[in-house]
Amino acid sequence: MSQLLLTAVGADRAGLVSDLSGIIASHGANWLDSRMARLAGAFAGIVLVGIEDFKVEALKDDLGTLEAKGLRVTVTDTTAQDDEDEAVLVVHLVGHDHPGIIHRVTVTMARLGVTIDDLSTGLREAPMGDGILFEAEVQCRITNATTLEDLRSELESIATEIMVDIDLVDRS
């Protein structure tokens, strides 16, 4: 059994997900996990599917036909990983919006060997008309390269530099 990670991008329109899921189902593949969003009028999605090995090439070929309908699908073969010994954390960040916030946080995590499983960001109005706030939520894993205390310390030190509040919750 193979697992494939599909990335799908195109101009948003009704029926994109139906077209994609129809091809996946027609090959007997199992839709395992997904994230999809409409961003600035475009559709962007990632889907993890499980499929029998002998059906992979036919699925890839049929997914290529979606380009004629405005949806470009890229297929990446994946291997399931065992993450049982790693601490799972959620980092929530909020502050006035300005360029570079995500880069500063993620470069710090990368330097410490922290891997990001899920990252969600967005903008919202600050209370009482005080500008635009940037929010991010990062689900991540601490590998053997660092400790929870080191990560907390590093994030607290950059929070002041980039003028954001950062909360870290251990979910393991």
TrEMBL record:
Pfam families: ACT_6 (PF13740). The lineage of its organism: Bacteria, Bacillati, Actinomycetota, Actinomycetes, Propionibacteriales. Residues 90-171 form the ACT domain. This is ACT domain protein. It comes from Cutibacterium avidum ATCC 25577. GO terms for biological process: regulation of DNA-templated transcription.
